[in-house]
Amino acid sequence: MSTFLGMPTVRPQPSRPPRDPLRWGASFPHAAHETLADGQLRANLRTATRTIRDKRRRVTAELDDWEQLRDAGAAIKASAMARLPDLLTQLEESVTARGGVVHWARDAAEANEVVTGIVREAGAREVVKVKSMATQEIGLNEALAEAGIDAIETDLAERIVQLAGDQPSHILVPAIHRNREEIREIFTHRMGDAPEGLSSEPRELAMAARAHLRARFLRAEVAISGANMAIAETGTVAVVESEGNGRMCLTLPRLLVTVMGIEKVLPTARDLEVFLQLLPRSSTGERMNPYTSMWTGVTPGDGPQEFHLVLLDNGRTRALADELGRQALHCIRCSACLNVCPVYEHTGGHAYGSVYPGPIGAILTPQLLGVGEPGGPAGAHDPTGSLPFASTLCGACFDACPVKIDIPAALVHLRERSLHPPGPHAPSATDVSMRVAARVLSSGRALRWAGRAVALVGRLTGGRAIRWLPWPGSLWTRVRDAPVLPVRSLAAWWARRSLR
Amino acid sequence: MTAPSTARAEMLGRIRRALGQSRSVEVERHYHRTGALVAGSGEVLDLLAERLEDYRATVVRTDASAVPRVVADLLDVPSVAVPDGVPAPWLAELTAEVRRDEPALTHAELDDTAAVLTTCRVAIAETGTVVLDGGPGQGRRALTLLPDRHVVVVEADQVVHSVPDAIARLDVTRPLTWISGPSATSDVELVRVEGVHGPRDLRVVLVDG
Description:
The structure holds two protein chains of two kinds. By secondary structure, chain A is α/β, with parallel strands linked by helices. Chain A has three domains: 13-18 and 25-57 and 327-422, no CATH class; 63-312, NagB/RpiA/CoA transferase-like (Rossmann fold, 3-Layer(aba) Sandwich), CATH 3.40.50.10420; 432-499, no CATH class. Helices cover 47% and strands 10% of the residues of chain A. Chain A has 22 helices and ten strands. Chain A has helices spanning 28-36, 39-61, 66-82, 84-97, 108-121, 133-137, 140-146, 156-164, 180-190, 202-219, 245-251, 272-283, 316-320, 336-340, 342-347, 358-368, 396-400, 407-419, 429-441, 444-461, 474-477, 490-499, and strands at residues 100-105, 126-129, 150-153, 222-225, 229-231, 236-241, 255-261, 265-266, 291-296, 306-312. A six-stranded parallel beta sheet of chain A has the order 1-10-7-4-2-3, with helices on both faces. In chain A, strands 8-5-6-9 form a four-stranded mixed beta sheet. In chain A, strand 5 (229-231) and strand 6 (236-241) form a beta hairpin. In chain A, helix 3 (66-82) packs across helix 12 and helix 9 packs parallel to helix 10. Chain A is globular, with a radius of gyration of 26 Å. By secondary structure, chain B is of the alpha/beta class. Chain B has helices at residues 4-19, 42-54, 67-74, 107-111, 163-169, and strands at residues 58-62, 79-82, 97-100, 115-118, 122-124, 129-132, 149-155, 159-160, 176-179, 184-185, 193-194, 201-207. Chain B has a six-stranded parallel beta sheet, with helices on both faces. The longest helix of chain B is centred in the first third of the chain and has 16 residues, at 4-19.
């Protein structure tokens, strides 16, 4: 239950807009400390994640070939990665043959430059946008704003996030951190044309957004979208959505720009039959999402008459170079892993300091940014380097993933990369303690003496939990109690027992 | 801007280096490549109707002779857009003003049109989906987007059981719109609200016999 006092209480989350949408805020543990203090957020997340995961479980159980679909999805993705150069050039040929223009962008800056150039050339000052993780990742809206172009997000949640000045906190429902009262307030103060006396009823809020965006759809000259899939053999691009804002953007303007990560390419049209079953059921927990649009280049007399496809790298080839980590590129952005993750459910998306939160974000973001590479982010106290540690390794994400990405294995692997970048470096506290432990455990004599020392401390503390230790022990006791120490070592107990 | 060909060559080079000696992967498809139910059968039509109603779409089942009557009942609005290729007899009993897309209606005119009447290319029973491909009787995509009510006539032989059945019948290079119920959002506290930007009202006429 929230109290609403009618004052402008909505502050952007995070409070300052990040320079890099993939890397902001403090390390994961610090950021999590802040978000964990927000009881309202935790309650919202608990309800939301439970609702979606129950729906997902119901509709995936309905298909008796669900596991076979997952296997096929995983295999298609792995096979597409292995043939990526061929598939991308084939896609380029098919799109070009159908009247589209293909661009290649090595990084965020280059992609933003390409898109801004196209919009400028078209003479547009305003563009409508379909929800897209790729354009979030490169900070396209901010780049367009710098060029004097107003980018309007048209997905309801994405519009809420944009008007609030927030970063998204979930891949599928980016405004999940906002409740209806906050949304009412954001609309009333920031939308410009919100109806008088707008209530916080979800239906009323949705209708206010419909009216607000309708005029903008009708006058839009240029639209920008992402892509869920693109078919190399035909040049077909697909976008799945629910609200119809996608159809508006993909149909009404005369020019369409689609920004797509290179990993989204699929070999054949037949592959659609796998992903159009896996994605909606895993994502919103529906048998099918309300609308899916597919287009191939330009169709005379139907939809945009100019089409540009921007193929984006921005760290994806880095991830591809890691044989174990590259499976993060198989991700179809369904967000099932977020909804089953006990860590995400408690901390929310903002603690991850990236537009990609949750388990998949914890393995994708570090790889896009080259964690542990020379000059790359590293270490458990770095905003990006700490992400692979934001997990209990319970494996729920692996079970939920429609393309069977082994997220726990990738997390462990990336922990290693984060803590042990190649090249010479000073030993960390963990390194030192592990070396000491190795010495003690490899000698019976040393272990006996260590046992006696521990038992002595155990008798001195009288079987009580130790809540505070001086440094370096404080690194442990700051976040958890030290275990109750035994008053006798196992060896000593055994010796007494055999004497009896 | 740097030469575009530089970006292309460099990205393809990076990918090749990253892949190194990676082996190709065989794709095995052990999922159901065809649905268990026969296209156009009574069971498949029942399933489609049930699944569409689950999305809160209106479903009316009828035989071919009653289509004009049913369509007229469902289109009790001032105006209806009608693309080329909709059978003329279906319009016989309409009371609504018929707007042809010839010459092409402007976006403003379409926005001002209450409803649209179309055929479809294929329908998927298992997922409650109707697919349009811009063929005869379906029109260009804007036509089925701006009017608030969409009445679509589905013939029994167009109804298949599963998603793979539908993909087998489709030419994906045509502009495709897959419609599964009216537009919807769950963005505010995950409360489902039907009807946001697309047609808020989807009415399916299922013709059997």
